[in-house]
Amino acid sequence: AQRVTQPEKLLSVFKGAPVELKCNYSYSGSPELFWYVQYSRQRLQLLLRHISRESIKGFTADLNKGETSFHLKKPFAQEEDSAMYYCALSGAGGFKTIFGAGTRLFVKA
Amino acid sequence: DTEVTQTPKHLVMGMTNKKSLKCEQHMGHRAMYWYKQKAKKPPELMFVYSYEKLSINESVPSRFSPECPNSSLLNLHLHALQPEDSALYLCASSHRDRGRGDTQYFGPGTRLTVL
Asked: Which residues of chain A have pLDDT under 50?
């Protein structure tokens, strides 16, 4: 069965500190992994998808199939990064996207 | 136009009312989705339309009835709802990249309150 686990409900860091939001998944086939972000009073939007292998707003995420993980990282957190982050999984050719429970990131000044 | 729009923004209805939520996109996306999101919870998939045909119904009660009149529009008809159906209802659309999962574009949601 498809499952996405985000172990941290809340992550609080100081501005300028590194941040890592954890995501582990369970899927028998070849998954597509995403990070979506929801800033205060804004709609849910894509941050990263693993096949793009790009850095967005300083964030990167690497798919580790051996550890079934897709952790989101940023070397220096900014206050504007404070938001709710959802890791999501979509099966190859599938219509369904499964969301993790989400991690609220709070970056303190 | 690169956004998904939803109307109304807020809706309050009684348990005997009939109402509809509307969603629209003009990005040429061929898949459209309805999600339900409770406070502090992730979105839960309700329905998926692909090329205007219902492809997934996640065992949603029949008091929710989706409709896809054309490739740009998606409706969710509501009837005889329960107070526990109060939530944020999100619409999303995607390209349907053949053979791969694809990015979803979300609307701002309709905040539904059932009295």
From this structure: none
